[in-house]
Design brief:
By secondary structure, this protein is an alpha/beta fold. It folds into three domains: 224 residues, Rossmann fold, CATH 3.40.50; 176 residues, Dimethylsulfoxide Reductase, domain 2 (3-Layer(aba) Sandwich); 111 residues, Barwin-like endoglucanases (Beta Barrel), CATH 2.40.40.20. The protein contains 22 helices and 28 strands. The strands form seven sheets. It has a seven-stranded mixed sheet. It has a six-stranded mixed β-barrel with strand order 23-27-24-26-25-28. Strand 1 and strand 2 form a beta hairpin. It is globular. Bound molecules: ligand MGD (2 copies), iron/sulfur cluster and molybdenum atom. The site of one ligand MGD has 32 residues, from helix 5, helix 12 and strand 23. Pfam families: Molybdop_Fe4S4, Molybdopterin, Molydop_binding. InterPro entries: Asp_de-COase-like_dom_sf, Formate_Dh-H_N, Formate_DH_asu, MoPterin_dinucl-bd_dom, Mopterin_OxRdtase, Mopterin_OxRdtase_4Fe-4S_dom, MopterinOxRdtase_cofactor_BS, Prok_molybdopt-oxidoreductase. GO terms for molecular function: 4 iron, 4 sulfur cluster binding; formate dehydrogenase (NAD+) activity; metal ion binding; molybdopterin cofactor binding; NADH dehydrogenase activity. This is 4Fe-4S Mo/W bis-MGD-type domain-containing protein.
Length: 716
């Protein structure tokens, strides 16, 4: 009898979960995936992987996958299965009707950082060339939009300055508001390898995460700050750098403007950022702030890695600027082993940013308001384009509540579960006349949708992804698309139904168009990536195989110099009070992924079958709570019920949960505050109180603290 597990074929592709972008050999037998083998030649992972990429692929043919298009006139009605042609006609008819009734700007699109560069590019083209407006956004809005803003302002490119392997040359590693052992496990273990070789580790995070301390690695300094105090703490570190003259004057004079440095030094050097003052405010020892500053500034090679603990705040962009300033002041840019590196989240969120899924820029970060840039896109696309920046996703939702925004095309995103202040999102969804959802599953947002296009997962299509180190890798079709079309084909057919004559023989042609219109991708093509494996942008005539380390000689700004931004600390308006005395911060766990549509449908759920509330024993004791009790978490925005998990990973006064399960509705309590510059939501700070719901309904929280392994050694 033939062995049903014996593979017949293998295809090299890229994991679509996190921004590490591990290469895999997907082995198949017939139309089934048998194994995912981490690819040894993968330049982001060198044959390593984590439990998601390796094991959590069974969602691809799960019975819940939608296999036919669906439509309905009202969200009260049941879904009607229809042919693809009917679904496209219906959606196009609705969008045209809405635009005729309420105006061109009454519809918009949201693209997916879970989809390929080519698909993201097509969705923004759909908004701009077909809908005729710039109402286009993507989930980087709620993730790393402050990175885009804060790093562009200081060093020019809103992206990681290094490649992952550069960390093997770092002497000091500073991790700010990121938890790579859970969120970017393969990079996390590379980091731990470097720590074991003797590099020093500074972690700034309210929680004692696995990154702070685990069996294989411990931080030399952990600043367990109160959530929401990043800017104060980073300014205080800068204060020590300035007061103790630990900065790199030669670098600043050569690569920045000295007078800008002086202005910045006057701000951070002021008494209000003295470690004693900030230590009291942030809840950490002043000497630890000094020690962190000395360690970072003295390097000799110090690298910063950061995540959502920096960006998802009302001062998210300011926090990112603080990191840019610090690296400029200490000369930690432009060589191996240093740099400022956002640990970008979803598999292709860097691509989402690069390829124009923003209301104000086309692909390649070129402004829609620039006449010459717009003319180049008009020449390529054959239609006049709108010079007015469009609505961001939160503005689309606000406009929907106000009654002026009526239709939305959402590809691969679940705003009802993942956006903040869920009550508001649902009110917006209910007010729209046509929501077209293009997803793998009927997610939470589907409850408010009128059209469902059954999409294809990354295992069912061709294209490219751009990972957190700017690396563009191939996604290759492993199995046939379950509902017949790859996602890029669905968007093209939707364009055609709207009357726009797009046509591509393959996604390679879309990448060619991207290359023509986006300077940093000018040299990218399927042929190049197929030949050399992967390439980091900028990739052009001067760097035909891409660029590992940015900013070697100059910064990509008009004057070629880095800029010190003034970063005054302004506390968030979200305050604790007697009624809401605890600070809730939210984040992730290793085995589950974001809204969980995929990982909850795999055996990974054995490790994290529900979201729990981590609460310190002291806070639990004063509320009469035991481990496993069902508790009510109430904020100014809503209430949810979760099981309590007594923990010393959080300090008293801080509670923590994840948002992977729809039924726990973490975002029914998160606030509507957001970053001043980019509207990135403040998921990391919500004032709450916690109370016992019903001891009778309590029980053991069904969570295994950690899976047995976080990272897998090369197989084979
Ligand atoms: N397993 C797994 N991996 C993932 C994901 C997943 O869902 N599951 N999602 C992917 C996505 S989309 C993203 S964006 C990345 C996110 O990856 P990370 O950025 O690492 O994500 P988080 O766990 O949300 O937050 C990071 C840390 O910020 C800390 N933090 C909270 N408040 C503050 C604060 O005020 N200051 C500081 N300094 N720190 C604070 C939290 O305690 C947490 O440890 O992960 C990606 N990888
Ligand atoms: N409280 C709280 N909320 C948060 C965060 C937090 O830290 N705390 N983090 C925020 C962050 S950083 C992010 S990035 C968001 C993530 O939130 P989302 O982007 O909403 O979540 P994902 O799970 O990444 O996937 C979104 C949808 O894409 C679908 N999908 C996956 N692959 C494909 C594909 O190939 N094609 C198509 N068509 N669809 C696909 C999935 O089924 C799912 O419905 O959540 C945000 N929400
Ligand atoms: S670290 Fe895990 S989730 Fe991230 S790309 Fe690699 S295998 Fe996928
Ligand atoms: Mo994210």
């Amino acid at each position: 009898m033939p062995n049903p597990l014996k593979p017949e074929k293998s295809v090299v592709t890229t994991c679509a979960y996190c921004g590490v972008g591990c290469g895999f050999k997907a082995e198949t037998r017939g139309d089934r995936i048998v194994r995912m083998i981490p690819w040894k030649e993968g330049k982001a992972n060198h044959g390593h992987s984590c439990i998601k990429g390796r094991f959590a692929y069974d969602y691809y043919n799960h019975p819940d996958r939608v296999r036919t298009p669906l439509i309905r006139a009202s969200i009260e009605d049941p879904w009607t299965p229809v042919s693809w042609a009917e679904a496209f006609d219906y959606a196009a008819g609705q969008f045209k009707r809405i635009q005729a009734t309420y105006g061109r700007a009454s519809v918009g699109a949201v693209s997916s950082s879970r989809c390929t560069n080519e698909e993201i590019f097509l969705v923004q083209k759909f908004a701009r060339a077909v809908l005729g407006n710039n109402n286009i956004d993507n989930c980087a809005r709620i993730c790393h939009s402050p990175t885009q803003f804060g790093l562009s302002a200081t060093v020019g490119w809103g992206a990681a300055s290094q490649h992952f392997d550069s960390i093997l040359q770092s002497d000091v590693i500073m991790v700010v508001g990121a938890n790579p052992t859970e969120g970017h496990p393969v990079f996390g273990s590379l980091m731990k390898r470097r720590i074991r070789q003797g590099a020093k580790l500074i972690v700034i995070d309210p929680r004692r995460t696995e990154t702070v301390k685990s069996a294989h690695c411990a931080a030399d300094i952990h600043l367990a700050i109160r959530p929401g105090t990043n800017v104060a703490i980073l300014d205080s570190i800068a204060h020590v750098v300035v007061r103790e003259k630990l900065y790199d004057e030669a670098f600043i004079r050569a690569r920045c403007e000295w007078h800008e440095f002086e202005n910045w030094a006057a701000l951070v050097g002021s008494d209000r950022y003295a470690p004693e003052v900030v230590g009291a405010l942030a809840g950490v020892a002043p000497d630890d702030i000094r020690a962190a500053a000395r360690l970072y500034a003295n390097g000799p090679k110090s690298a910063i890695y950061y995540g959502l603990g920096v960006t998802e705040h009302s001062q998210g962009s300011t926090g990112v600027m603080c990191l840019g300033n610090l690296a400029l002041a200490c000369g930690m840019l432009g060589i191996e082993g240093v740099g400022v590196n956002p640990l970008r989240g979803q598999g292709n969120v860097q691509g989402g940013s690069c390829l124009g899924s923003w209301p104000h820029v086309f692909s390649g970060y070129r402004f829609v308001t620039d006449d010459a840039v717009r003319a180049s896109f008009e020449a390529e696309w054959g239609v006049p384009l709108d010079a007015e920046p469009g609505l961001r996703l939160p503005n689309m939702l606000d406009a929907a509540v106000a009654g002026t925004f009526k239709g939305m095309y959402v590809m691969g995103e679940d705003p009802v579960q993942s956006d903040p202040n869920q009550h508001h999102v649902i009110a917006a969804m209910k007010n729209m006349e046509c929501v077209v959802l293009h997803d793998l599953f009927l997610n939470e947002t589907s409850k408010y949708a009128h059209v469902f296009f059954p999409g294809s997962s990354s295992l069912e299509k061709d294209g490219t992804f751009t990972n957190a180190e700017r690396r563009v890798s191939r996604v290759r079709k492993v199995v046939e698309p379950l509902a017949g079309y790859q996602d890029w084909e669905i968007t093209v057919k939707f364009m055609n139904a709207m009357g726009y004559p797009a046509s591509y023989a393959s996604p390679a042609e879309v990448l060619d168009e991207i290359a023509r219109l986006s300077p940093a991708y000018r040299g990218m093509s399927f042929a190049l990536i197929d030949r050399i494996g992967s390439a980091q942008w900028p990739c052009d005539e001067s760097a035909p195989e891409g660029t590992e380390v940015l900013h070697r000689e100059k910064f990509p700004r008009a004057n070629g110099r880095g800029t010190f931004m003034l970063t005054e600390y302004v506390p968030t308006a979200e305050r604790t009070t007697d009624r809401y005395p605890l600070l809730l911060t939210t984040g992730r766990i290793l085995s589950q992924y974001n809204v969980g549509t995929q990982t909850r449908r795999t055996a990974n759920s054995l490790w994290h079958p529900e979201d729990v509330l981590e609460i310190h024993a002291q806070d639990a004791a004063v509320r009469g709570l035991k481990d496993g009790d069902l508790v009510r978490v109430a904020s100014r925005f809503g209430e949810i019920e979760l099981r309590a998990r007594l923990s010393t990973r959080v300090n008293p006064g801080v509670v923590y949960t994840t948002f992977h399960h729809a039924k726990s509705r973490a975002n029914a309590v998160t606030s509507d505050l957001s970053d001043w510059a980019t509207n990135c939501p403040e998921y990391k700070v919500t004032a709450v109180d916690v109370a016992l719901v019903d001891a009778g309904r309590s029980g053991q929280a069904r969570v295994i603290e950690r899976p047995p392994v976080e990272e897998m050694e090369p197989a084979e």
